[in-house]
Amino acid sequence: MSLLFNAYPLARSALFTLDAEKAHELTLQRLQQAYDCRHLRRFFPPVQTRSRQLMGLTLRNPVGLAAGLDKNGAHIDALAALGFGFVEVGTVTPRPQDGNPRPRLFRLPRAQALINRFGFNNHGLDAFIANVQRSKFRQDGGVLGLNIGKNASTPIENAVDDYLTCLDGVYPHADYVTVNISSPNTANLRSLQGGDDLGRLLQSLQLRREALADIHGKRVPLVVKIAPDLSTEQIDAIAELLPRYEMDGVIATNTTLDRSRVQGLPHADETGGLSGPPVHELSLAVIRRLRERLGGETAIIGVGGISSGTQAREKIEAGADAVQLYTGLIYRGPALIEECVRAV
Asked: Catalytic: which of 135, 182, 183, 283?
């Protein structure tokens, strides 16, 4: 096992003495520095190859990085070198925005969970695309997903415009594009998951994708990221709309607003989205229902609460074609990637 993997428990002890967001930023900085140094790069693990087809793409293995860890796409190559089969970065919005005031990231160590209320903090579409273009991951055969959203200042009735602007920008540089309509930290965003609003958004994306495919000579898969806090009726409605508007996949799920599994823990009452093991069962229920309603044609990427290889395998058994990690990395470190690849 890589020295990098073995060293993480020691590093985590030091990082957990810092403010959670500062620790996050420091970790990315140090990871990038290690990757940029050719003498240290040899301590990165070889990527385990367990090839899998997904939406016409060939994944090196079915364990990916979830969006949110690298919002600006500034560390794609360094993160990919940890052993991921595919990487997703973002969420990006058309214009730069600071997000919500700090503090906005909280650890719940007893539950190995996090609560965040970042609010799509990012440097904007132009900076994001420049970072993506500088990365070498796609050139080396990696699969890169780009995750798009709306600015907080954009009225919800104009949200489609923001998504189309982002789609136009990221389309030439993405292996797939994720439409994030499930963050709990942008006002009214989750309303786009239901009814006529979702139909209008997906139809607009479908039509724009057709135009972009003609311009760029390639059809980039579109996936939709949904919340774990949906009723059965809402899941069924989404499952009906996805194939109607030729969406290629769905990511299940984002963070939850439910606090029933962390009641009484420090920070449990902070506003924002809860991630980590408390989301696992909620995510599994959504995946099972989606697979039942979608059949085998639409891809499902399972994310939410994976902190062991067993939980990754449970996502696959529930109907997911691939999985993504985020919060589990904070608590387990990069050894979790290898464990999950072996498990699935």
From this structure: 183
